[in-house]
Design goal:
By secondary structure, the chain is α/β, with parallel strands linked by helices. The protein folds into two domains: 66 residues, no CATH class; 91 residues, Vaccinia Virus protein VP39 (Rossmann fold, 3-Layer(aba) Sandwich), CATH 3.40.50.150. It has four helices and nine strands; from the N terminus they run βαβββββαβαβαβ. Helix 3 links the parallel strand 7 and strand 8. The longest helix has 13 residues. The radius of gyration is 16 Å and the shape is globular.
Length: 162
């Protein structure tokens, strides 16, 4: 069974921009794990109106500019280690997001990318010269999934897969 996961990375909003409506929809800012969203057990994905568009936060019909990206990845049913997002990849992706300015103009190579979350964040959040995501050809399903993930995030990501 395949699973789609969306990760949102954003800079913390100043407290004056977080009103009760946002806290009600998304939880208090201090409760956020910025790689996964607010900490809650609600799996209610039915409320399509409760998502933030990339780079925007709505507050009483006002829009505040944010530094934010959203990356969607596909985990596939496979015995390969590269078929799902590891907790370490989430931590690394969050670190890359918060240090994104260090990657400006750099050439980035992610070896054993698997689903490719850290590399996708690097490609989407800064201005690297290039990003190359690699994995072993011994697991063609992993590479195929990585290529599909790149294609589905094409509007944000400037990277290649081999």
């Amino acid at each position: 069974m395949n699973t789609t996961k969306t990760f949102v990375f954003m800079d913390k909003l100043p407290d004056e921009h977080i009103d009760s409506d946002l806290e009600e929809k998304f939880g208090a800012a201090e409760d956020w794990d910025f790689a996964r969203g607010p900490e809650n057990d609600d799996d209610d994905d039915d409320d399509a109106g409760s998502t933030l568009e990339q780079g925007e936060a709505s507050s009483n019909n006002e829009t505040t500019s944010l530094n934010a990206i959203s990356i969607t990845v596909q985990e596939v049913a496979s015995e390969s280690f590269g078929a799902f997002v590891w907790a370490g990849a989430e931590v690394l992706a969050e670190l890359v997001w918060h240090r994104r300015h260090q990657f400006e103009g750099k050439h980035i190579l992610e070896i054993g990318a698997g689903v490719g979350l850290p590399g996708l964040v690097a490609a989407s959040s800064g201005a690297p010269a290039s990003v190359l995501l690699t994995d072993t050809p011994a697991h063609p399903l992993v590479l195929q999934n990585l290529r599909q993930t790149l294609a589905s995030n094409h509007n944000q990501c400037r990277c290649q897969c081999r």
